[in-house]
Amino acid sequence: MTARAERMRGWGFVAPALIWTLAFFVVPFLVMGAMSLATLEGRTLVWGVSLANYAELTEKAYLWRAILVSLEITLTVTVVSVLLAYPLASIIAFRVPPRWQRLALLLAILPFWTSYVVRSYAWLLVLAREGVVNQALLGLGLLSEPVTLANTRFATVTGFVHFFVMLLTLTIYANLIQLSPNYRRAATDLGASAFQTFCHVTLPLALPGIVTGAFLTFVLCIGDYVTPQILGGNTELTVPQVIMVQLGRRADFPLASALAIVLMGIVTLAYLASARWLRLDRL
Amino acid sequence: MIRLLPWLYLAAAFAFIYLPVGALVLFSFQAGNLPVPPFNGPSTRWYADVLADDDLTGALANSLLVALGSSAVAVSLGFGAAYGLARHVLPGSALLRGLLIAPLTVSYLIVGLGLLIVLTRAGLGLSLWTAAIGHVVINLPLAFAILYASMGAQQVNAERAARDLGADEARVVLLVTVPMLMPAIAAAFFLSVTLSWDEFIIAFLLTRFDVTLPVEIWSMLRSGLSPRLNAIGSLVFLVSVTAVVILETLVFRKRRP
C-alpha cells in the first residue's frame, strides 16, 4: 500500500468525528463570536463589528452586577470547598486503613449520581422553612422560629459546596496518596512540629491536587445555571442566569453571546492564573 | 479527644454529603402532600402516581432514547478518530487531537447557546434530534480520549497478524480491534450514557415539545415542593447508581485482567 493510500484510509477513519466537531462545535462557536459583535435594532438582527454589547456590560448596572455576583459566589464556593475538602481527603488518605479507602471514596461519590436538577431540589427540601434543618433546630430548642435559608445566596453556596467538596476531595486525595510517607517522616526526624511539617512539606507537595480541583470548581461553578436558579431565588442573578433571561424573554442573542464570551474570558484568566500548578492530564 | 477529632470530622462530612439525598429518598415515601417533617409513612402512593404520569414516563423514554442514541454515535465517531490517529500517520495529528478534545474545555451552556444560534439561524426546528446532536458534541471528546488512551501496542501485533492472514481493513477493525478494546468501548459508552441521561442545560435549550427527563423535572419544579419530585428523583438515583455499578465493574475488570 502506498503512503498516500494509507494516509487516505487514516483520514477516512478520522473524518466523521472531525466533521461533527467542526459542524456542531467550531462553526457554532465562531457564529456565537460573530453574534456578540452584532446588534439588535428593534427585533431585527444587524450583523457587523460593533462593541456595543460589550460596552453595555459596563454601562448597565444589572449586567455588571451579575458579573460581580458570579465572581463573588464562585470565589466563596472555591475557597470554602478547598477548606472543607482538604481535611477530608487527608483523613481518608492518612487515617483510613488502605483497604477501606476506595470504599470511602465510592461512598462519598454515590449521592452525586442523583439527577443534577434533583440534587438542587433536594437542598431546597432540606433548607425550606418547614424543611429538615429548620425543624431539627426548632426541635432542639436552638431556634424559636424558622429562619429563611432557601432562596438566598447561602443556599446557592451550600448547594455548590456540597458538590465541589466531593470533587476536590477526589483530586486532593489522588495527590496525597502519591506522596511518600518518608518526606513527612524525614521532616519529623529533623525536628519539625506537625504544623511545620504540614506548612513546609505536605502542603507544597499537595498543591497540584488542590489547584487542579480548585480550577475545575471555578470553571464548573461560574458556568452553572441550575443551582443558582433553583436555590438562589430571584434577588440576585448570576451571569448564566442573565444569559438565559436574554435568550428567553427578550431573544437578545447578541447580548447573550457577549456574556458567554465574557464568561469564557474569565475562565481563561483563571486558567492562566493556575496553569503553573495544573495537572489536568492526571484526571 | 484529639484522637477522635478526625473521625468526628469524617462522620460530619458524610452526614453533610448524605443529608439531601437522605431527605429526598425518605420523603419520597411520605403519605401526606408535603415532603417535609414530620415523616408520615411509609407509603408508595407517589411512586404509583409518578409511574402513571404519561408526561414523565414519556420524558423518561425520550431520555433513554437520546442517551443511548447519542452515546452510540459518540462512541462510534470517537472510535474511528482514535483508530485513525493511533494507527495511521497523519499530518497535524497533534492539532487534530486538540480539536477533538476542545469541546471539553467549554461549558455546556456555551455549547448549547452556540448550537441554538446556528439552528435557529438555519431555520431548523428544535427536537430530540437537536438535543442528541448536542449530547454527541459533549460526549465525543470523552469517548475519543478514553479510546485513544487504550489503543496500545498489544493490539497492533494482532492486527498485523490478521492482515498477513488476508483480512481486509474492515475485518481487522471489526474482528480484531473492536473485540480487544471492548472493555474500553463499554466504559466509554456507559460514561456517555450517564452524562447524557443527566444533562440538563443543552437539552433545555435544544428541545421544544418532546423533552428529556431532566427538562420535565425542571418544569415540575415550578410548582414547588412535592413528594412526586422526591419519588421521581429517587427513581433517577436508582437508575444512575445501577449504571455506575456496571461501569465500575467494567473498569475494574480492565485493571485486573
Characteristics:
heterodimer; A: about 280 residues; mainly alpha; MetI-like fold; two-stranded antiparallel ribbon; about 75% helix; B: about 260 residues; 12 helices
CATH superfamily of chain A: MetI-like
Question: What is the CA-CA span between the terminal residues of chain B?
Answer: 45 Å
Helix run count of chain A: 12
Strand content of chain A: under 5%
CATH class of chain A: Mainly Alpha
The CATH superfamily of chain B is: MetI-like
Report on the biggest sheet of chain B.
Answer: none
* Rg estimate of chain B, integer Å: 23 Å
Characterize the largest beta sheet of chain A: strand count, sense, and whether it forms a barrel: 2 strands, antiparallel
Number of strands of chain A: 2
| Oligomeric composition of the shown chains | heterodimer
Low-confidence stretches of chain B: none
Give a verbal description of the structure.
- The complex is a heterodimer of chains A (283) and B (257).
- By secondary structure, chain A is mainly alpha-helical.
- Chain A has a single domain, classed as MetI-like fold, CATH 1.10.3720.10.
- In chain A, 74% of the residues lie in helices and 2% in strands.
- Chain A has twelve helices and two strands.
- Chain A has helices at 3-35, 52-59, 61-94, 98-109, 116-127, 132-139, 153-176, 181-189, 194-222, 226-231, 239-250, 253-274; strands at residues 39-41, 44-46.
- The longest helix of chain A has 34 residues, at 61-94.
- In chain B, helix 5 crosses helix 6 and helix 6 (128-150) runs antiparallel to helix 9 (182-198).
- Chain B contains twelve helices and no strands.
- The longest helix of chain B has 34 residues, at 54-87.
- The relative contact order of chain B is 0.14.
- Chain B has a single domain (43-255), classed as MetI-like fold.
- Helices cover 75% and strands 0% of the residues of chain B.
- By secondary structure, chain B is mostly helical.
- At the A-B interface, helix 1, helix 3, helix 4, helix 5 and helix 6 of A face helix 1, helix 3, helix 4, helix 5 and helix 6 of B.
